[in-house]
Amino acid sequence: MHCVDFHAHAFPDALAATTVPYLEQKGSVRAALDGTVSSLLASMDAARIARSVVCSIATRPKQFRSILDWSRSIQSERIIPFPSFHPESSKALEEIAEIRRHGFQGIKLHPYYQDFFLDEKRLLPLFARISELGLILVMHTGFDIGFPRELRADPTKIAALMRQLPGLKFIATHLGSWQQWQEVQEELVGTSVYFDIAFSLEYLPREMARKIILSHAPDRVLFGSDSPWAAQQNTIDLLRSLELGPAREAQILGGNAERLLALAGG
C-alpha cells in the first residue's frame, strides 16, 4: 500500500534535542520519536509509509528563511516539506510566492503558536495568495493541548473562510477541529474542507469518528499522525479499528493524499 502521512513534524537534529522535551512539557505529552528526520524515516519504514509531509511552524517572522532552507535540504522522494511563514511578516505575500517558486506544494500555519485568529481581516489577502498559487494550506484547527482554550480556528470560522475562498485547498487538522467535533459535524461535514485524522482518533468516541468520516466526502479525508506526538503505526491501527471498509481506508491512507499532492503540482 502506498501510504502517505499528511501531517508529521521534524526538526533539525540539534534543535530536536531541545525542542521536543520543551514541547512535551508544555503539552503534558510524551513524544513517540525524538523529532529528527532520521527517526521519522525509521518509523515510516516500520509502518510501511511511503511518504510523509513534514510541517514546520514559523513562530517568529525571522524564522522564514531558516525554515525554507532546511525544508529544501530535507526534501526527497519520501519527505515532502511544507514550510511556513509568519502572518506578521511585512513580506508575507512575497514569502508565500517564494515557497511556491521553490517547488513546495503547501504551507503550515498554527493560530496558537503564531498568535492569530482565522477570521482576522488582515489574513484574507494571505489566504487568497495561497489559493491563487494552488498551494495546500495545512492549518491547526480546534483547540491545542498546550494552550488555553480559545476559538482561534474553530469550525464556524473555517466555514466562513471557505465561503470567501471556495477554491482554497484547506486541511483542517485533527479531524476538522481538535475537541470541537460536534461543531465539525454541524459546520464542516459535507463541505469542501479536507480533514486529516492526526491526534484525534485517540480522543473521541469510535462511533463519532466513524460518523464524521463516513458523512464527509470520501476524497476529503487524509491520514496524518502528528508524529512525533503520536506513533504512526498506532494511528494506522486506530484508523483500521474503525472498520470503514477497504475502499475508504485505502483512500484515507494514501489515495486522497496522492491526488491532492498532484493537484498542488507534485
How would you describe this protein?
- The model has no long low-confidence stretch (mean pLDDT 97).
- The strands form two sheets. Strands 4-5-6-7-8 form a five-stranded parallel β-sheet. A three-stranded parallel β-sheet has the order 1-2-3, sandwiched between helices.
- It has ten helices and eight strands.
- With 266 residues, the protein is α/β, with parallel strands linked by helices.
- The two termini are 19 Å apart.
- Helix 4 runs parallel beside helix 5 (124-132).
What's the short version?
Helix content is 42%, strand content 13%.
Strand-helix topology:
Layout (H helix, E strand, L loop, with lengths): L2 E6 L4 H15 L9 H11 L1 E7 L7 H12 L4 E4 L9 H10 L4 E4 L14 H9 L3 E4 L15 H10 L4 E4 L8 H7 L6 E3 L9 H10 L5 E2 L9 H10 L4 H18 L3
Parallel strand pairs: 1-2, 2-3, 4-5, 5-6, 6-7, 7-8
Helix pairs in contact: 4-5
Tell me the number of strands: 8
Query: What is the mean predicted local confidence, pLDDT?
Result: 97
For the terminal residues, how far apart are their CA atoms? 19 Å
Task: Give the DSSP E fraction (strand runs of 2 or more residues).
Answer: 5-15%
The first-level CATH class is given as Alpha Beta
Please name the CATH architecture.
Alpha-Beta Barrel
- CATH homologous group name: Metal-dependent hydrolases
Instruction: List unreliable stretches of 5+ residues.
Output: none
The chain-level structural class is alpha/beta
Number of domains: 1
